[in-house]
Amino acid sequence: MADVAARAGVSLKTVSRVINGEPRVAPATAAAVAQAVRELGFRSNHAAASLASGRGVASIGLLIGAVDDPFYARLASGVEQVARAHRHTVLISSTEEDPELERDAALGLAARQVDGMIMVPCSPDQDYLTPDIAAGLAVVFVDRPPHGLDADCVLSDNRAGAHAGTAQLLAGGYRRIGFVGNDTTVYTSAERLAGFLAAHADVGLAVDEHLISLGPRTVIEAEAATRALLARPDPPQAIFAQNGPMTMGAWRAVHALGAPVGLVGFDDFALADVLEPPVDVVAQDPVELGRQATTLLFDRLADGDRPTRHITLPTHLLTRS
């Protein structure tokens, strides 16, 4: 704040008033302070305020897609296990897969002076974090890699998992297999679609592009997309669903129509083993993703100059049907 005040030629109190949105500041003065804030890359230090009041707590930030998604809930559990062992609390925020929300939430966590941050990115570029990283913020990416930054990350082997799940359907005699998933701007969807296509290529089988439905994000949207595929004159004999919500939606459609359609999903989910018929899934371990990412974060905090590390965790096929 002292640097901002000096740059703008005003008092510390004036800077405080502008930053906190208090009245009684001339527009020209507020504009000068705002310009100094932009030029200097100033962030309000909420942690310093907490320490001054005797309420400071060591913390890390966790930025996920959605708090109500079981995958992210389990990932957060893994993060908290390791953070707790390091006597840190976890501040959680979500992006709802909105790039603008990602930026606002990430910079908001940085402004609270968290020691480090674990992110599931959704925007096409995380370069906006460069000033904070240069200032000492440790950042680790999980589930999806960063763009515009060289940073530690922990991923699942999405392509190999999708390949294994699709190969099982092909081995079962299915030749027309549909794919239901997010659009390919989502890293995990693109990787799983690549594995799906590679499994077909391995057996010399062409994929009917009309059986690939990209874009659904919710269970309801996945159900509608699956119904549309099954209503085609040449419907798929089986469905590969790209994640938990896609699998639940696809199962609903298949069950409601009573169609004899094979189904394999990526990500295990509650009750998948007791549904009738039960659902085969490619399982990953979101808790371990969270643990590994948080371990990398504290390693980075201990040695900020070490080379970046990229970890890929295996998946495995759970056959139930």
Question: How would you summarize what this structure contains?
Answer:
The protein is an alpha/beta fold. Helix content is 45%, strand content 17%.
Structure report:
The mean pLDDT is 92. This protein has helices at 2-8, 12-19, 27-40, 46-52, 70-85, 99-111, 130-134, 158-171, 187-202, 219-230, 244-257, 286-302; strands at 59-64, 89-94, 116-119, 138-142, 152-156, 177-181, 212-214, 238-241, 262-266, 280-283, 310-313, 316-318. The chain has twelve helices and twelve strands. Helix 1 (2-8) packs across helix 3 (27-40), helix 2 (12-19) crosses helix 3 and helix 5 runs parallel beside helix 12. The chain starts with a helix and ends with a strand. The protein is elongated. The chain has 321 residues and is α/β, with parallel strands linked by helices. Helix 5 links the parallel strand 1 and strand 2. It folds into three domains: 2-42, lambda repressor-like DNA-binding domains (434 Repressor (Amino-terminal Domain)); 47-150 and 286-313, Response regulator (Rossmann fold); 158-283, Rossmann fold (3-Layer(aba) Sandwich). Strands 2-1-3-4-5-11 form a six-stranded parallel sheet, sandwiched between helices. Strands 7-6-8-9-10-12 form a six-stranded mixed sheet, with helices on both faces.
